[in-house]
């Protein structure tokens, strides 16, 4: 089957028996197994499906497990007391076991068959409601990428591949099911999913799947900003943020998701690129180490170039520095939130991180001590360390503050001038600076 997968042809089923694949039940959550077995014992078809099957076949350890079945949501709810039905656009059953939620979806159909049960609505090419039940064959063709359309059958532990997903796993390539432009118009966020999955899995994106990005990328502006926020978290806070960022740039999609970031990077500021990539790399490292991260710091990194340049422009035009930084932050955040709905609790922290940056250059006693006591000092200081590529003076500034916070309060206060010009660099005599091991900047240790 070639990369332009067929829409109408009947899928060619390939069944991979238990002895010929690597999926083991010991790597499937107990909650997912309970759901699968209960459905099967009640006489329904029950399959593990989607990303969990893909990742298990690749030797990974999925965190989320989705189930597909021919039982309707109401029938699922009758089987499980711990079940709740959610969604209008896409009706689902959530079976809850403590903190774990197993998502159970009924096989979706095309809605073209006479007497098809349910409702499917398409407006301007986009699916706005999708609750038509169908067969497993139809369900496979309705999924996005071929690697996500394989089914693990709990009845005999085989894997069912209807669209060539196993071949794509071996080729390490993402191919869409169906005609790419049509599938992206149905749901533009699929373009971002392609970039995210390629980055996560280390796969390439099939040429036919990538070809419509430039033409159809503007459709992302019509996606719900709250949904794009969730998608952004999946890209940048799941341990493969740097790869996702580079993939977005490579695919030409960054400008549709983070237009301010793309504009700033197009100006050729290599120090800014170093800051963004180091911030993403540090966040990835924290995720791998099991440490907490916050979207506020990450979004502050991504939008810094545009905020900084706009603030400097306003100051050069005669605006008060504090007002300039506040106005720059408001404008850039406002534009970005039209694309990605960043909650106010995060944008407030972002604005504080940015507004504190100029204050690091002021080394009078009261200002230094006040800044050290600021609740966002740690996040702002970590951000300052990311800026070391801007200039040698910025690197020295980071070293100065690294040492200053190590000193006892009285010692630091005695070493600082009580007044002064507060120029662009700390005064050499302001505090004793000796060579120390640099503290590695982080993506902030605690959520905002």
Shape: elongated
CATH architecture of the largest domain: Orthogonal Bundle
Helix content percent band: 40-55%
- The average pLDDT is 88
For the report, how would you describe the main beta sheet?
A: 8 strands, mixed
What structural class do the secondary elements suggest?
Answer: alpha+beta
Counted by DSSP, the helix tally is 21
Give the end-to-end Cα distance, rounded to a whole number of Å. Answer: 48 Å
- Given this structure, which CATH class of the largest domain is correct? Mainly Alpha
Tell me briefly what this model is.
By secondary structure, the protein is of the alpha+beta class. The protein is built from 21 helices and twelve strands.
Walk me through the structure:
With 448 residues, the chain is an alpha+beta fold. The protein has two domains: 14-178, Beta Polymerase, domain 2; 187-448, cca-adding enzyme, domain 2 (Orthogonal Bundle), CATH 1.10.3090.10. 48% of the residues lie in helices and 12% in strands. The protein is built from 21 helices and twelve strands. The strands form three sheets. The protein has an eight-stranded mixed beta sheet. A two-stranded antiparallel sheet has the order 7-8. A hairpin with a 4-residue loop joins strand 9 (150-153) and strand 10. The chain is elongated. Residues 1-9, 421-438 and 442-448 have low confidence and may be disordered.
